[in-house]
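User: Run a structure prediction on this.
Assistant: Running it now.
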Amino acid sequence: MPPLSLEGYRILIPSIAGMALAATAVSLSVQQAHGTTGISTYDGWSLVAASVVIGAIFLATIFVKRFPKAAISLGVFLSIHIGGLAALVLGAADAVAVALAAPIDLLLQAGVMMGATLLQFYWMRKLRGTSAQAVVVVVFSALALSELVTFALSFTEPSVWHFACVALMFLQFAPVRASRAMGLPSDSFPAVSESYFGTDENHFSNRSFLVVAALGIWFISIPIGMGRGFSTGQPVHLDPAARGLVLLCVAIVSMLWVRFALASRMHALTTSIWVVMELLLGVGTILFALLPTDPSPGAALVLASSLVLQAFVWYMTIAFISFGWRDPYYYATAAWIAMNLLIVAGMRVDALITRLVPSNAAAIIAFMGFFVLLGAQVVFTRLLAAPSERVEVQAAADRAAAKAEAAAAPEAPGRITEDDVRRIPLMGVLAISPQAETPLPSKTPDVHIATSVLEIGQRFGLTGREVEVLTLYALGHTQARVSEELQLSTNTVHTHIKRIYEKTDLHSRQEILDYINEYGG
């Protein structure tokens, strides 16, 4: 990361502002400025209503490879207006003391939540291909700013919250315009997949890795929901001291993790952030047990844990957006639905236990501990388990495979084998017959380039993916075309090309072709 300065990090400011504005709008208008631990004023039903639209977007991503830019821009415009106008109606109704019908009030709150949530998705998409360190700076700075504004406005009336939400929604136009003028954060802070979870980018296209990430969110969301509804399933009222405790916890965690990011100590995030969430939950449950007549302090810590989880889910979603092969909205919608609906479900578990067990505090605490344990087992044994060890094992496997391949390769130089055809997709594109044993220099120029890239890869220690990218790039394909052929994001392709330049000390396509003409084949 560059030295801390406004100039160095200026490109991140629009994303921080956009995320903070959207998160604050939900906290104020839908979640009553965190005056309670409720997920919404209708026991989560406004969230469920918003999930219908967000779920439809998720289903659309299964059939649409990539949403076009025009659709994204239209979505941002509609999200701002839907959320802002819904908040305006709610604020006007409060100002003139008109009670809206429950279904209308619920749908208006769902409109605010849907608009603000879709704007969060937009900003996560904007951070695609950005380094883990820069993403941490964005998400935790946005979280701290959002909670600070929410705390300050929590001492005002509901009508003020709604009118503030109107301003927050329409203020989104400013960072959106600024971000378009300044360019992409990934240009200044290119991503490296290993810095996110200590694993290579191929894992982010692996369904099992995605399932493990989802399970981790599910298992931590359920006890968070149970704590937010302790002990009857209803939201817990938070007095000013409890709200101050939430702000204090969020501020401390945010400052620490931004500091870790600036110091490039990313291991602290990928492992310790989960420990922090569990500690907040654990101390919260202890306070529930010690203060059975006043659940407010314990609920405050649970709410703080929920907010930290929200930032972590933003971070994890951006990782999948950057290196996964599906549309960014696929990952964003799936993570949001998984987290929020399971929190609502956790509050329903409290209500169920209350009906079954009259003295239910101990039972709820036991269930919370059980789900926290499950979440820890899934995350630490599957998602975050010994990243460095996993990388070393993979590197050892790659070296062994390379030795075996070298031993099995024919002695004649410049020949292409059936393994090459399977290993490098371009060989299939070139329609090279696996039986052809003719030396490559006598083949077409495209084949000569492809084989020379293999030699460059061995000479400079390029990874298999970098060889694939370089082959297509040297053949004259644009980065967008390489992205389409290899099912990678354009930012990922850009990052690969940067690393290839660094390893080979070649800094343009022409220099690569000149090198091939002089030394290749």
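Residues 465 and 496 are 8 Å apart (CA to CA).
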